Amino acid sequence: MTTTDRRDDDAETLADLLGGARGAIDATIPPVAFVAGWLLSGELWVATVVALGLAALVAVWQWRKGRKPRAVLLGVAGVAVAAMIALRTGRAEDFFVVQLAANAASALVWVVSIAFRWPLLGVVVGLILRQRGTWRRDPVLLRGYALASWVWVCQYVIRVAIFGPLWWSGDVVSLAIARVGLSWPLVALCLVVSWFVLRRSLPEDHPGLRHPQVSAA
């Protein structure tokens, strides 16, 4: 493995591999639109129409930018489910129940993946790099992905700790503000910190993420 290879690998970050925080930014638009529509009209159905309308526009924009159709449809479906829950209960704050539940579930899944030695960060990056399970046969990479995955667990726990009390108190405006503050800024921070943890866990002579060191045994 040459020095040039390692240097090129160092220049590539998790943000490059995982697509950055663009998707997280787009995901904040429908919730903010929902709350704005609700505040201005006082009607949940108006807020639903506004949120779904903007979700559809964002979806079309993402699709034209080359995002996979299934991912685009899932984003719109998530907004639709959240709006349906709010309409059903008659409580605007319930629009954020899906977000709260999804983060709680995500934290649990990431913890389980680490416990079973299939850290999800490694799974995702491994799929992107088309390594299948090769990275798991490199003890150094396996340990690095496990440590970095804890950063992602913390991300979801932080959201649950903030969203939970706000939802319980029915503070819809604060929920919308938290939705923005805990989306792309937190994702960007998580990417930076998890990348730092991952890189610091690899010794200097390790060739990098793209080149797992698999022992003959």
From TrEMBL:
Keywords: Membrane, Transmembrane, Transmembrane helix
InterPro entries: UCP010219
Transmembrane segments: 44-63, 70-87, 107-129, 141-164, 176-198
Name under which the protein is recorded: DUF3159 domain-containing protein
Lineage start: Bacteria, Bacillati, Actinomycetota, Actinomycetes, Propionibacteriales
